[in-house]
Amino acid sequence: MDTSKHLDWLESEAIHVIREAVAQFEKPVLMFSGGKDSLLLIHLARKAFYPGQVPFPILHVDTGHNFPETIEFRDNLMEEHDLDLIVGSVEETIASGRAKEEQGPDASRNKLQIVTLLDTIQEYGFDVALGGARRDEEKARAKERFFSHRDRFGNWDPKNQRPELWNLYNGRSKHGEHFRAFPLSNWTELDVWQYIQQEDLEIPSLYLAHERAMFERDGVLLPKSPYNELREDEEYVEKMVRFRTIGDMTCTGAVESTATTIEEVVAEVATTQKGERSARADDQRAEAAMEDRKREGYF
Amino acid sequence: MDVLRFTTAGSVDDGKSTLIGRLFYDTQQIFEDKLEEIRRNTHRDDDEIELGLLTDGLRAEREQGITIDVAYRYFSTPNRKFIIADTPGHEQYTRNMVTGASTAELAVELIDARNGVIEQTRRHAFIASLLQIPYMIVAVNKMDLVDYSEERFRQIVEEFQSFSDNLDINDITFIPISALKGDNVVDPSGNMPWYNGPTLLHRLENVRPEADRNQVDFRFPVQNVIRPHQDFRGFAGQVASGKVRPGEEVLELPSKRSSHVESITTLDGDVEEAGPGDSVVISLTDEIDVSRGSMLVRSRNRPEAVTRQIDADLCWMNEEAMRQDRPYVIQHTTRRTQAYVSKVVYRTNVETFHREEADTFELNDIGRVELETADPLFIDPYKINRSTGSFILIDPDTNDTVAAGMIRGEAEDVAPFGQEEMATTTERDTSPNVVWEGLNIPRQAREEKNEHQAAVVWLTGLSGSGKSTIARTLEERLFDRDLQTMMLDGDNVRHGLCGDLGFSPNDRKENIRRVGEVARLFFEQGNVTLCTFISPYQEDRDRIRGLLPEGRFFEVHVDCPLEVCKERDTKGLYAKAEKGEIANFTGVSAPYEAPEDPEIVVHTDTDDVETCVDQIVATLEAEGIL
């Protein structure tokens, strides 16, 4: 199968959007999660400004519950491409009293990230944050714009978005407001993997099948970690797994898989029967879970 | 694998969501967990799952049972990735339809077979035409509810064509489907043996991608300047149209200074060519001033105009009505400047396509305006270049995107509708018998020198009747007698003079009007001017007769029965027209009005070419022309 044409098309579009964001805003930043979409975004940002440097810093909101592999990968990537990293710490947000840790079963720092993210954006005065979100990931994202307007509180109003026509992006904002820009809007999970394969990009080892101690909760396969405690009737089992998305260890589920190379991952994604975020415990909370978090300023 | 972007419009009742759900379901694009969720939410009496639920995105929509915005959806087959802009169909969502249409290469128009063409159908077709979507599929849905009736399908096709003739859509395919039952969506239907056209997916997979991209006229709007060190200065951008290679001469706008392309740089190495849609960095051999908002073009192929006066079709997208007494920000390619709406020419009623008098536009209004901008823009007509022909208007106070514009060209200060008729429909008020003022050498002087009179010989008849063959032989005959001649035919004028026209009744009228004016110029130059045009309408032919002095216009009816023309079918056009591949084809899907009182009638089914030519020559001699 000749895959290159649609990947070229997607690449070109994404580069155009990244360049528009840089041209139309004063202080851009790239939101890095450690996941494949955000590392793809960094790759595209390098392409957009080559032979120049990436003209903005990289922002990572660290929940303190990240996989150690994520942090290691992040640091290597920054060093390799000489990128400027800013880390926003949820730990510090909690310590400062600006947010309270969730209590009870399935407690997650997922929502707390929003506070840290918005704080960091404000602290540095960023007026546009580039993110790797894709429209095919989740139904609330299907209506997202390339340039997504946020109000002074960082909120997204799905009913009041600017129409986006042709490739003319309107990034005019008032003081105190900021934008999100999503250059990968038109990519699907399979596109991402095919592109990673085509460009021969290095990816966090979590995406490839490996042996790991896992336990099952509400149908989701979660990793053993210092932040999860087993409940009654739960037990650790060694399994061959890989992650399709990467977030906190507390809520990122894995899939059983034998795909140990990118080629095998591409083949697996092409034939899978489960949605990409189906293993995300944070999305299973309510039917409109993502929509609610997005309104409040989630990535 | 390539990419095709298409748009769908329709209300929930048309089964739009079901259709998209069906496309996904039958191409195995629905994940099991998603299906599970849909099954949970299905509240149906029968066993069918509610495919429509697949596409209803936001909570507000689920609560109200409507779609409120443009949603983008993705699926692919082994050879093509599809991006769907899914838009709601109600009147209040005209702006969403325009948004979805702006990036679409194909439009799927859904019609409920029970209801036939409704207002919304016309509105969407109009928008598809205005936004210049190259392909349209008219999917007549819910065929299962009309017993898969061929007659009903034909009726709807006819109903649609009766108004789409007035639109500028060149390629329309009609497909009878049932999204709910799956007929002709992905798999051919066993329920409609009378239909042997493509399924919806087959058509989607086989139209030419990027048909909306201009491959010829090089335009490169500069996004950013890349200057990593002293020795490199490059200009980042996405090629809007045309192609460029290293070594070629380019011109910078607005300075009009020229230079040559030094290199086309990417992270993967320099490239030998950049074409439409490519994001690249171009560096030049000379240090000329280039910045964001500059445009690189070719010195011999510049935008139609570098101007501050713009004539454009506009769709108003904001709750606050348009005002002429305040500036907006106009964003065109990578340029932004201020713009005033200097004039509202008319508003178009998107259901009747009629022009209405207006002094402002409100939300969802579409019409024609003139704009005046603070800085010049480098514009092409939208019909020729979607990238350099489009713009948005932004409210400088709220920063909302308030309008989308499609450029017609440089404004020429046309009179608003209702105050004075449009130029193209104005009747000539000069008397045809008066010699034109200002002709340096009058026609009579030329005629004396030529030793023959000037005339216009107008050959009208069906396609394939033999007009051109006769005219060619006739012209050779006249030329051999040392007569001044000129021949105008459909093919040569449609390449240049009338290259912007289609085949709708209005465009045909305009085509013939222009040809008439050109014929008159050649006439004034003393030529025996031979014109071969199907020219199906008596009214149009009469108008040309009216341009010329009495006794100088010879209407020749090249008469040949339709069956014989079809049998000849020299260009294979009848075959295509009967398959529905050519709309508005005279004799098949458009009428031909035979001349009421022609000067000459020749019969090409019974007489040979020489006989017909003899007949015409004899008449011209008898009337004192030769």
Structure notes:
The complex is a heterodimer of chains A (299) and B (626). Chain A is α/β, with parallel strands linked by helices and 299 residues long. Chain A folds into two domains: 4-191 and 288-295, 3-Layer(aba) Sandwich (Rossmann fold), CATH 3.40.50.620; 203-283, no CATH class. Helix content of chain A is 32%, strand content 15%. Chain A has a six-stranded mixed sheet with strand order 3-2-1-4-6-5, sandwiched between helices. A four-stranded antiparallel sheet of chain A has the order 8-7-9-10, with no helix packed on it. In chain A, strand 2, helix 3 and strand 3 form a beta-alpha-beta unit. In chain A, helix 1 crosses helix 2 and helix 6 (189-199) packs antiparallel against helix 7 (262-271). The two termini of chain A are 34 Å apart. The relative contact order of chain A is 0.16. The model of chain A has no long low-confidence stretch (mean pLDDT 85). With 626 residues, chain B is α/β, with parallel strands linked by helices. Chain B has four domains: 2-206, 3-Layer(aba) Sandwich (Rossmann fold), CATH 3.40.50.300; 220-297, Translation factors (Elongation Factor Tu (Ef-tu), domain 3), CATH 2.40.30; 305-418, Translation factors (Elongation Factor Tu (Ef-tu), domain 3), CATH 2.40.30; 443-622, Rossmann fold (3-Layer(aba) Sandwich), CATH 3.40.50. Chain B has helices spanning 16-26, 32-41, 59-64, 94-102, 119-130, 150-164, 200-206, 443-450, 467-480, 490-495, 505-524, 538-547, 562-568, 573-578, 609-622, and strands at residues 2-10, 71-77, 80-88, 106-112, 135-141, 171-176, 220-221, 224-229, 232-238, 249-253, 257-265, 279-284, 295-297, 305-316, 328-332, 335-348, 355-356, 366-379, 390-394, 401-410, 455-460, 485-489, 528-532, 553-559, 600-603. In chain B, the strands form four sheets. Chain B has a seven-stranded antiparallel sheet with strand order 7-13-10-11-12-9-8, with no helix packed on it. A six-stranded mixed sheet of chain B has the order 2-3-1-4-5-6, with helices on both faces. Chain B has a six-stranded antiparallel beta barrel with strand order 14-18-16-15-19-20. In chain B, a hairpin with a 6-residue loop joins strand 19 (390-394) and strand 20 (401-410). The longest helix of chain B has 20 residues, at 505-524. Chain B is globular, with a radius of gyration of 28 Å. The N and C termini of chain B lie far apart (64 Å). At the A-B interface, helix 1 and helix 2 of A face helix 2, strand 2, helix 4, strand 8 and strand 9 of B.
